[in-house]
Amino acid sequence: MRVAIFASGNGSNFAHLVEHFRGHAKVDIVLLICDRAGAYVLERAEALQIPSICIRPKEFANKSEYELAIIQQLEAYAVDWIVLAGYMRLVGPTLLHRYSHRIINLHPALLPAFPGKDAIEQAYSYGVKVTGVTVHYVDEGMDTGPIILQEAVPIVEGESLEALSEKIHEVEHRLLPKAVELLATSEVQCQGRRVHLNSSKTIEGEKSSR
Hints:
Rossmann fold; seven-stranded mixed β-sheet; two-stranded antiparallel sheet; 6 helices; globular
């Protein structure tokens, strides 16, 4: 399974994925796509010896042309799956059609709660007692695709936003590689909104059993 990672910023999840799958028999991370020049994730890719390409939307007339340029690079690297790990843009119909049911996203909240940007801050400000991390398929909506894995993260009384963010990131670094492993070994089946493991355990809307 040849994987491209899309990221826009720091790239900690990108780095963890690359390290996790070094020498893996079934997963090969072959490319980083970034939409922001100067993003730190590009430096991480260079240090980890992963090919990277910065493709900036403002250099194209519209979203379709932007995504066609991305697809050209994905095809050059024979990419099978796309993993969004801190990619701060909605995927459009051009890319969704070409990689239908082969794009997943990492989101730092328990969807469907707190979709979109700044999800950790949204949950913290709202005052919920439990938040978490979700890995889901990407569809045309904002964080609305079928859920593959979730893991809950409790918010402790008096805890700072920084401390909560660190706990969320620790779970992200575990949950995203687990989801990619499941996809690579054909352990995931998506039927409508429901995602099943081959063991027949439904995992939609549940936290992971880690």
